[in-house]
Amino acid sequence: MAEISRRAAALGTENAFVVLAEVNALARQGKDIISFCIGQPDFPAPEHVQEAAIRAIRGGKHGYTPSAGIDELREAAARYLGAMRGGLPIRPQDVVVGAGAKPFIAYAILSTTDYGAGDEVIYPNPGFPIYESQIVANGAKPVPIHLHEARDFAFDLSDLEKKINKNTKLLILNYPHNPTGGSLSRSELQQIARILEKHPQVWVYADEIYSRLVFSEEFFSIAQAPGLYERTIISDGASKTWAMTGWRIGFASNPVLAPVLTRWITNTDSCASQISQWAAVEAINGPQEAAQRMKDSFLQRRNLIVGLLNDVPGVKCRTPGGAFYAWPNVTEACRMIGAADSEEFRKRLLNEAGVAVLADIHFGSRVPGEGQHVRFSYAASNEAIEAGVSRLADFIRRNTKKAA
Fold it and tell me: What predicted TM-score, i.e. pTM, was given to this entire model?
């Protein structure tokens, strides 16, 4: 019998979708589930964006586009990316449009490492699971750098210095961060840039998809640090800022690698949806009030869920600096109810209390000494947040009595 390749067998996944399948199966059985597992805005795309897509459909804009994207979107994205990042001199020809921002993770690894050559890629742990999955699938060596709760889920800069060597070809940074909601400050990014000065062979993949959802300070990109612009692949997109996850529009920028990224798109997707591209032009160039309202709502929800979680027995939650994720520490809660770890805690919470979250192991190996964590996506209504955390508290109290 024909067999699949070792590469395919080892390919990782995004467990948010695995848990979502569990949630949907329980819902089909009539179970009442409050879900915090998927990281996508619960708002519709702005009306003027929807209307732009309708105009594109009715205007016959249905065919292939250049692999790098339509000129209008590349121009709009170049202005937008540059303005968001302190006036970086990003040109339209430096920007490549993709079917979402996710494919650029693979394209960046493919463009900077060689299969089986011993090339290393440093990536955050915990982190978006597709980083490690694509590093392994594309034949590079994954090198996790641990994020620490005491540092608001940043990594130790001395740890970065230790991990970089002559084989390091790519450093993946994500800020604000999925799954913790943590971020990297301007000062930290500038210090990282100074470390990279000693290692000119290292590219940087700056996953900045949550750039418009920073709550603590003005967004700053590592590409703004001295000497880093030409070495940084900036990745952003329409999904989170304008609630366009299913429209699948991302864009990446690098003055050196843009033609290479374009060739990868030609070899894979051909191009992003033309209809979605015209909608993204309107998202960038049109009114921004809806995007601001969404950000304001996420900030209010962040404050709500962090306050509620910190009142739950056995739960401690740091205040995230951006995105729409909370990463509470449930080490004591696991002990109280007799759960072996966060994954057992997560499964029991889903099946016994009807609350869906993700466990820390869905985002990489558990960081030594950091305890147990789960992820809440607070892209949910205030009512859902209040009801879900109330169920969590009742679940812990009820099971603490049983464990005792």
Answer: 0.96
